[in-house]
Amino acid sequence: MRYFYQQMIAFVLVIVVIISTMGLTLFNFSKNQVYLRQQEELSQIADFIVGQEITKDYLQQIQPVLDSASVRVFYFDAGNQRQYPDAQADIQENLQLSESELKQLTSGQQLGLKAFDMGFSERDSDALAIFIPLMTTPSKQYAGYLAIGAPAYLTDRTIRALYVNLLRGVLISGGISVVISALLARYQNRRISRLSQATRQIASGDYTVDIPANNGDEFDDLAKDFNQMTHALQVSQQEVNRQENMRRQLMLDVAHEMRTPLTTMIGLLKGMEDGVLPPEKWERSISLVNSEAQRLARLVNENLDYEKIRANEISLNKVNFSIAPVFNDIALQMNEEAAKKAIQIQIECEPDVRVYADADRFRQIVVNIVKNAVQFTTEGTITIKGTSRLDSTQIIIKDSGVGMTKEEVENIWERFYKADISRKNNVFGESGLGLSIVKQLMNAHEGHISVTSAPGQGTSFTLEFPHEKTLKQEKK
User: Fold this and answer.
1) Does 142 or 313 have the greater pLDDT score?
2) Which is one Pfam family of this protein (predicted)?
């Protein structure tokens, strides 16, 4: 049985129990009110009778009036013997009051409504009667009592009508509650089924599921959370697919990057082994083998370095230091290669400009960007500029090279991506890892890097290194 049908049955049972309890309470209250009204009517008749001298003749005179009201009066003397009416065969003479009730009457207290046999029908206790003690005047001595009653069937008929109405109300209310509960259960069951179907779609790999949510109740909140989950799964699946494509591309790129130097090395060594290369060319061949081996070593080391940085397995020894000397050292280091392409490296940095960073990693970041600039610039300039701002140190490395399209700018951070393979230089940027490492190192420094470029207008890298004080304030 489905959950909501179980809830429906529980809901109906609760309603029936509540209605039954309230109905029984109301029934008992109404029943007591009927008895109380009957007692009050009989008490009014008793007040009228007791105000006169009680004799058989007087009772016989008023009997027609009492008969019209379906009321009978029995008169018992002080010895509890009935004086009026005379003994009748249809009235049980052994129907007497208990000792305690007689004592109550003897003391002058009247008895409330009680079942009593007064000959209205053939069944026993066919009347409901009250009992009024009689006292002599002026001595106030007990002289007997009157039993004034009406047929019990009249009261029973009223109570039976109350019972039938109560039962009818319970059945109607129960039926209505069953219908309403069934409709609610069906409505909620459809919503659960919709979630269940959506779950099966997700299990089958369809993450485009969207469940309507009207922000009405907890089920709509659940639907919203479900939609957020499917959206997250969709994004995650797209990222997984992207990563899988990158993995395939990475394997292809690694194989391609390694194949060229390995092919060169194997060819040269095989030529030397087979005597194809004359001895006078061996020195040049060994130099080429050594160069290609170093290239392979750099490729492996840069891959390892990239993975360690991305996995946050490196520790940064961040200190405050002047960046102008670092820029000058880098310019001197790159000057020879830049001169081959008629490139001028210009430094624009005041001596007091300082940065909060790991010195070795900072140098690595700047070197990789400058290498990239040298690779894609010919007969131009590369400007390295450093300025201190309010909450960070800003470094701008700008070249006058070939520039990049918007799509190329978006992809330069990907591992092994090369904006223009035809312009690849064997000394700088041969692996396509330089800018990927720069991005990861900037993230490790909690810094920010941005690129602006356009084809034929050069490229500008902007790096923001937060001050030590800024980072401490952000962590508080």
Assistant:
1) 142
2) HAMP
Taking all residues of the chain, what is their mean pLDDT, rounded to a whole number? 82
Q: DSSP string spanning 121-132?
A: SSSSS-EEEEEE
What mean pLDDT comes out for the span 258-263?
A: 76
**How do residues 377-418 score in pLDDT, each as one tens digit?**
988 999 999 999 999 999 999 999 998 888 888 877 765 555
> What topology is assigned to 316-475 in CATH?
Heat Shock Protein 90 (3.30.565)
Q: Which of 458, 439, 461 is nearest to 450 (CA)?
A: 461
* CB burial string 53-82: b at 16+ within 10 A, e below: ebeeeebeeeeeebeeeebbbbbbeeeeeb
Q: What is the percent of the chain where pLDDT is above 90? A: 22
Which residue, among 435, 185, 417, 393, has the nearest Cα to 309 in the 3D structure? 435
Was domain 218-307 assigned CATH 1.10.287.130?
Answer: yes
Q: Specify the residue for token string 């092994």.
A: 416
Domain ranges across the chain? 3-158, 218-307, 316-475
Q: Model pTM?
A: 0.46
Return the SS3 of 448. Answer: strand
333-368 core/surface letters (b: 16 or more CB in 10 A; e: else): ebeebbeeeebebeeebeeebbbbbbeebbbbbbbb
According to the CATH classification, is domain 3-158 in 1.10.3210?
Answer: no
* Site of tokens 């008969």: 67
Pairing of strands 381-388, 344-349: parallel
